[in-house]
Amino acid sequence: MDTDHAVVMTTCANEEDAKPIIDVLLSNGLAACVQVLPINSYYLWKGDVANDSEVLLLIKCKKSKYEKIQNEILNFHKYEIPEIIQLPISDGLDKYLAWIDDPRDQTETF
Questions:
Q1: Which class is 5-101 in CATH?
Q2: Environment class of residue 26 by beta-carbon count within 10 Å: exposed (0-12), middle (13-18) or buried (19+)?
Q3: For residues 41 and 36, what is the distance between their CA atoms, to the nearest angstrom?
Q4: What is the mean pLDDT of residues 30-43?
Q5: What count of other Cβ atoms lies within 10 Å of the Cβ of residue 109?
Q6: Pairing label, strands 85-89, 33-45
Q7: Is the distance from CB of 60 to CB of 98 less than 8 angstroms?
Q8: Pair 54, 36: CB distance under 8 Å
């Protein structure tokens, strides 16, 4: 089953930098859920290998909201070139996907 849902990923230096992004996405109804995970990133940057502790944001959303989500991340992000990618959700629990569709409708019990 192909769905209209996605996970958008971005990284931030820390939770303090991530908080404004999380707040705007949730308060504007662009995301149903944002999970924050501590990670270690190894990457090439300006010809050197770099390593940083970061937080990874997993943003559960409708695919159709990607452009607005990207714009809001760019409005608040502190990185020169932030990771902003969308991964499609190909399938999932029907009730969970329905919640992503309308997270403000809390009539379903999980």
A1: alpha beta
A2: middle
A3: 15
A4: 98
A5: 5
A6: unpaired
A7: no
A8: no
Tell how many helices (H) and how many strands (E) occur in the chain.
3, 4
Q: Please say if the pLDDT value at position 110 is more than 60.
A: no
Helix (H, G, I), strand (E, B) or coil at 64: helix
Cβ pair 72, 21 in contact under 8 A? yes
Query: Which of 10, 61, 58, 53 has the alpha carbon at shortest distance from 36?
Result: 58
- For the cut 80, the answer to whether the pLDDT of residue 108 exceeds it is no
Q: Where are the domains of the chain?
A: 5-101
pTM value? 0.92
Note the pLDDT tens digit of each residue in 8-28: 999 999 999 999 999 999 999
pLDDT band at 2 (very low <50, low <70, confident <90, very high): confident
Rounded (10°) CA dihedral 104, 63, 18, 47? 180
The closest alpha carbon to 29, from 105, 109, 107, 108, belongs to 105
Instruction: Output the pLDDT for position 53.
Output: 98
